[in-house]
Design a protein that fits this description.
Helix content is 61%, strand content 0%. It is an all-alpha fold.
Length: 278
């Protein structure tokens, strides 16, 4: 692969991550009355994304990889909006009791996001069925990488981190802060980061294998970039992230509507959206 062939998919993935994260943050800062309109528009885009995933599954060209990747990101973004805007959460919408610990605290925390997690799992299962036996699996793999890395981020937030992105939570999700822990380190984060790096190495090997097809070269390069960004987001739980530089353009509305006084630097979640305590 030439430098341009290597750089193009990586730049594309980084741009999609940067722009989609900022767009969701910006929309989430608008007045609540706008949520139905923006979520409705996102649902229409998601319908087109599902069609894109279905059609691209048989497309073995490089354009098929880009379409599948972008469609999976759009579908993931719909789930992020459904959570942050309060449409799909969980049966529990109360703060964690001060005396809750151990397994009880975990059960209560899980109940705050249960419906969201079920929706993500069902969507992933549907993508597996939709693309089963097809040569282009980039869309399904994109959603799978996002799902696994987001689960890792959620567990790390639950176990404790110094930079938890609490100020990203709108007023109707403020109860989630009580399920976070403020800790300098937890035992899971090294495993999460090393596992992410290992996955990135595997994807790099697949993308640059001598016998790799153009679809595989581009598709695995997109997944490689997404994985590295997810690892970076894990690092940003413990190192102050440069959010003003990355998403300053998404912040103006925050001071007018749903913003909450920041206690820690925001954390991008990916996708993120996000780093809500999902």
């Amino acid at each position: 692969m030439t430098f341009a062939e290597i750089a193009s998919p990586m730049l594309f993935a980084a741009f999609v991550w940067w722009f989609s994260t900022g767009a969701i943050l910006w929309l989430n800062r608008l007045p609540h009355a706008s949520f139905q309109w923006s979520f409705g528009a996102a649902s229409a885009i998601t319908a087109a994304a599902v069609a894109g995933l279905a059609m691209s599954a048989a497309n073995t060209s490089t354009s098929g990889a880009y379409v599948a990747f972008a469609s999976a990101i759009a579908l993931w973004g719909w789930h992020e909006m459904s959570f942050l805007m309060g449409f799909i959460l969980g049966p529990r919408r109360e703060a964690c009791p001060a005396d809750a610990s151990g397994w009880r605290r975990f059960r209560l925390a899980a109940a705050t996001i249960m419906h969201h997690e079920v929706a993500l799992a069902l969507t992933l299962a549907a993508l597996v069925v939709l693309t089963w036996g097809q040569p282009n699996q980039i869309g399904t793999l994109t959603f799978l990488v996002l799902w696994v890395m987001r689960l890792s981020a959620k567990f790390n937030l639950f176990l404790g981190a110094p930079h938890r992105g609490e100020e990203l939570l709108p007023a109707h999700l403020q109860h989630l802060k009580s399920y976070f822990r403020n800790r300098r380190m937890n035992a899971l984060i090294p495993i999460s980061i090393l596992s992410g790096v290992a996955l990135a190495c595997v994807l790099a090997g697949l993308a640059h294998a001598p016998a790799a097809l153009p679809l595989e070269q581009v598709g695995y390069s997109l997944l490689l970039t997404l994985t590295l960004l997810a690892v970076l987001e894990h690092v940003f739980m413990f190192v102050p992230p440069p959010n003003a530089l990355l998403w300053g353009w998404a912040e103006p509305a925050a001071t007018q509507h749903n913003s909450v006084p920041a206690t820690t630097p925001p954390v991008a979640k990916h996708l993120t959206v996000t780093r809500p305590a999902e």
